[in-house]
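Reviewers asked in the last cycle whether our approach scales beyond single polypeptides. To address this, we selected a multi-component target totalling 845 residues and predicted its structure end to end. The input consisted of the following lines:
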Amino acid sequence: MLRSLLLLPTLFVALSLVSGCGKKGEPVAGDNATAQGKKIFHVGNGTEPQDLDPQIVTGVPEHHVITSLFEGLVSEGPSGSDTVGGVAERWDISEDGLTYTFHLRANAKWSNGDPVTATDFVRSFQRILTPSLGAEYASKLHHMVGAEEFNKGELTDFSKVGAKALNDRTLELRLKSRTPFLLELLKHYSWFPVHLPTIEKHGGATRKGTAWTRPENLVGNGAFILRDWRPNQKIIVTRSPSYWDRETVKLDEIHFYAVESMDTEERMFRTGQLHKTNELPVAKVDAYKRDFPESYRQDPYYGIYFYRLNVTKPPLNDKRVRRALALAIDRESIVRNVTRGGQQPAYSFVPPAERYTSKTRLVGGIEEAKRLLAEAGFPEGRGFPKLEILYNTSENHRAIAESIQQMWRRNLGVDIGLLNQEWKVYLDSQDVLGYDICRAGWIADYTDPNTFIDLWVKDGGNNDTGWSSPAYERLLRESFAAPDEPTRMEIYHKMEAILMDEVPIIPIYFYTRPYAIHPKVRWVANVLDNRNWKFVDFLP
Amino acid sequence: MLRFITSRFLQSLLALFLVISATFFMVRFVPGGPFTAEKAVTPEILRNLEAHYGLDKPLWRQYLDYLGSLARGDLGPSFKYPNRTVNEIIADKLPVSAELGALSLGVALILGIGLGTVAAIRRNTWVDYTASTFGMAGISIPTFVTGPLLVLGAAIHLGWFNASGWYTPMDRVLPAFVLGLAYAAPISRLTRGGMLEILSQDFIRTARAKGASEFRVVTRHALKGGLLPVVSYLGPAVAGILTGSFVIETIFQIPGIGREFVNSAFNRDYTLVLGTVILYAGLIMALNLVVDIVQAWMNPKVRLE
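The resulting structure, written as C-alpha cells, was:
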C-alpha cells in the first residue's frame, strides 16, 4: 500500500520529465476529422463568445462563429481577400457613390425556411440603431444617412434613415458621404441581418441578452446552424440544409473550442484535439518552424503595434523629442529577437496591403535622433525628465518595453521607466491621457487604410494622444469627396506624411498571426483573419 | 447546540451583508468599467449602454436595487455575457467545479492522510523522510508546473489522455490528480503532526498495554484525534476546492466557476463579481460552522457554548 502510494506521483513526475526531453510529439490531428464519414473541423477560437447576437457582440471570437451562422449582403470570396455576393447576388452603385442598390437572391433563406427579404435588413438596421438596445457597434452603420441621428435619439422616424426596401428583393442604402470601402464594411457582423420574428418572440427586439441565441431558438441565414453551445467548452455548428449555396459548403460540422490559454491550445493541437489553433505562443514559434514546418503558418494581419505619446506633456509636446525617440528604436532587432513571429518592422502607420502601401518612411538614424534631442535642449539626454512607458500586464509587452528602454538609454542617454497596469486600468489611463508613453495596438475593422487614418482626428474616441492637426482634418474631409480611388490613396499618403512628421505615435511593427494547422486543411482567411467557412475543406 | 448554531448563523448573515456591501462599492471604484474597451465607443452609445443596465442611476439607488433583487434570489444579468444571468452561470459552472473538487478532495484525503499516518508511525525512517519530501515538494511546486508536466508526459507523449477538456470520464483524471496533489501535501504534513502528538499520549499507551494491535491502535484510537488539525484545515480548503481553481480550470479547459472568479474581476462584470463573492463567502461560512460541529464531536475537549 505504502509503496504504491509513494510510487504513483514519483512515477508520474519522472515519466513526464524523461519523456519531456526525449522523443518529440507528432502533431497529429485528423483521426476525428472524418469520424462516421463526416468532415468535422475542430478549431481553437480564443475566449468564450459573449453572445451570438451579431448586433450585441464586439469581439473576434464571436465574429468567427457568427460568420458561420449568418450571412451579410456580401462576403469573403474563396481567396479570402476578394468580395463575393452573400445574400445579395449583385449590386449597383450610383454615379456619385452615395446610393447602393442591392438585389437579393430569390433562394436566400433563414434556417426556419422563411425567405431573407430586404425588409429583414431594414428592420435589422433599425434594431441595432435603436438607442435603448445600447449596441456598442451601432456606430459602424453611421455611414448611412440619418443613422447617427437615429442612434443618438435625435431622429425618431426610421423611414428618414437611408435604408429602404424598394421591394422584397431590392434594398437601397443611401450614404452621408462617399464611402468607397462600404463593401468591406458590410462584411462586418454589425451589418448582418437578424430574424426579427424570432427575437420578438423571445422578449422583444430592443432587449439585450434574451434567449433567442440559444441553440434551440437561434434562427440564422448562414451556411451552418447552431447545434450546441456549451459555455466555456465549445460551440458546435452543423451544415444548414436551407442555405442557398449548400452545394459549396464542404464541412459537415465545425467545433469551436473556447480556449483562453495559448499553451493549453497548443497542447490540444499536439494531442490531435484541434485541427487549427487560434494563436501560437511566442516561445513555441521557433520549435514549430524547426520541427513541424508543415504545421506552422504565419499570416499577415492587418494591424500595427505602436506606442502612443502624450503630446500634451512636456517634453513630448516638442516634435523634435518625439522624432528622436521614434528614430532611436531598432525595429529589426525587436522583431528578430523579441517577437520572433515574422512580424514586419513598421516605419509608417498603415500596414502594407494590396490597395495601399505607405510611401512615407520614418527615416533618420541614430545620429539624427541625437541631433534632434540636443536641439530640443537635451544634449546626450542631459536634463531629460524621467518618463514612463505604460503597458498592460503581459510578458510580451514587457519584453518589448524593456528592449526599447535599453535602446533609448544606449542611443540617446535618456532614462525611461516602465509601468504596467491591469488591462482596464491601463485603458482608463490611456483614455484620460494619464500616461507619458503608452503601448498600443490597432487591428483594422475592415480592409481599407481609412480604418487606420481616421484614428487621428481631433477628439476621436481612439486618438488618446492629445494630438491633432488642421491640415490632417482637412485632408480627411477631402478623402471622402475624392472622385476616384487613386486620388483617395494619394490623400492618405499625404496624411501619413503629416503623421510621420509629427509622430504623435511611434510605429513599431506590423502584426502577423502565427498559428498551428493540420497540413491536410485547406484554409482560407483574409488579413483580418475573417474566413468564409463554406470554402474551408480537408484535402484528400 | 441549537443556540450556538442560531447565533453563528446570525453572525454569518451580518458578515455576508458586510462582504456584499464592501464588494459592491469596491468594484465600482476600480478604474475602468464593464464597457471599457480598446476600441472606444462613442459617448452617446456608452450612455445608451449604461441606461440599458441601469448604471446611469445614482450609486446608492443601484445598491438598493441590487439588495432588493438579491432578496428575491436574483443575482442580475452578466454584463460580459449578455444572454446569461449570473444565476445561470453559477448553476452551470458550480457543479463542474464541485465535481472536480470532490474528486480532488478524494485524492487529497487518501494520499494525504495515508502518507501522513505512515510517516508518523515510521517516524524518522526513510519512509518518513520520503513522505516529508513529498509534502514539501507538493507545497512548493505550484499546480501550473505539475499540470503542464503531467499533460506533457501522460497526454502528449504517452497518449493516455486528452490534453484538456471536460467531456469524458477520462478527462477527469489528470485535473483531479493535479489539484488533489496540491491539497494532499499540506494534509500529509498536518496528519503527521497531529498523529505524532496523539501517539505519544497516555491513552494510546493504555491501549497498547491492553494488547490492542498496532493497526487497531492507529485506526480506532489515534486517527480520530490525530486528524483534528486536518479537519480545521479542511473547512476553508473544501470551500476553496469546491469553488474551483482558476489555474487548473484554465490549464485543462474546464468550464468551472473558478475561472469566473478571476475573469469577472478583469472584465469588471460587476454582478458576476458579486455573485461569485457571495457564493464563496457563503460557502466558507457554512463550512466553518460544519467544522466547528465536527470538531466538537471528534474532540471531547471542545464544547459548543
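Chain B touches chain A through 68 residues (CB under 8 Å). We regard this as preliminary and will revisit it once experimental data from Aim 1 are available.
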